[in-house]
Amino acid sequence: GAGVSQSPSNKVTEKGKDVELRCDPISGHTALYWYRQSLGQGLEFLIYFQGNSAPDKSGLPSDRFSAERTGGSVSTLTIQRTQQEDSAVYLCASSLDRGSSYEQYFGPGTRLTVT
Amino acid sequence: GQSLEQPSEVTAVEGAIVQINCTYQTSGFYGLSWYQQHDGGAPTFLSYNGLDGLEETGRFSSFLSRSDSYGYLLLQELQMKDSASYFCAVRDPGSSGSARQLTFGSGTQLTVLP
Question: What residues pair up with B33 in beta bridges, in sequence order?
């Protein structure tokens, strides 16, 4: 079946512009996660959605970052007024439910470059 | 907060056995996962330990000791294609106390030599 998809695969933007990154999780997966990964580093948790519950936003680095999940499926991560330190690979993952969070399925990521 | 420590690099030869250790300090703990990531690729799930002991999946095994806050990933009969980064990740309650999200280590770069 289809895996997690993300778009765009690459995004180059100028400092100060807003960007939107999209994630389409595996059908039937109720849990969705956003991470970012800087070159050679581990994954930094950003935000977590579980079904219709309020998202866990504890990992968002600043109020320039926001995310939503519509209809319990597709999610969009928005970064406003981008800064050079926002340059990273943004990874989306999904799991069957909260209880299966140990086994997450990752998308290919969006490589964001802020110039 | 949560912190995980794993070696940054490990090198081994084809056919050998390698062990990647992971120690963790967390405010809550539900289990330890391992993920593999090839250069330019997405992380893929390898193994999970929710209880103490050894879990075996083909050439890969993972071990957990909750009393020692320690786990390891064991890779046997190494192949060139095993060259990748390996991440341990703690399943923790998150800020809400029930979210059970993953906190990842910084990763271990494994290089397999011919």
Answer: B48, B89
A105 touches chain B (CB under 8 A): yes
A98: distance to nearest CA of chain B, Å? 7
Structure tokens at B66: 């909750």
Q: Do B106 and A42 touch (CB under 8 A)?
A: yes
On the question of pLDDT at B15 being above 80, the answer is yes
The residue written with tokens 């949560």 in the block is B2
Instruction: Please tell me the distance from the alpha carbon of residue A93 to that of residue A29, in angstroms, as a whole number.
Output: 10
Give residue ranges of B with CB < 8 Å to any A CB: 30-31, 33, 41-45, 48, 50, 87, 89, 91, 94-96, 98-107
Best probe of the A interface among B100, B109, B111, by most A CBs < 10 A, is B100
Residue A81 tokens read as 């007024």
Secondary structure of residue A65 in the 3-state scheme: strand
Residue B1 has pLDDT above 80, yes or no: no
pLDDT category of residue A71 using cuts at 50, 70 and 90: confident
**Between chains, do A56 and B94 touch, taking CB under 8 Å as contact?**
yes
B108: closest CA of chain A, how far (Å): 9
Are residues A21 and B84 in contact, defined by beta-carbon separation less than 8 angstroms?
no
Would you list the DSSP string of chain B?
--EEE--SEEEEETT--EEEEEEEE-SS--EEEEEEE-TTS--EEEEEESSSEEEEETTEEEEEETTTTEEEEEE-S--GGG-EEEEEEEEE--TTSS--EEEE---EEEEEE-
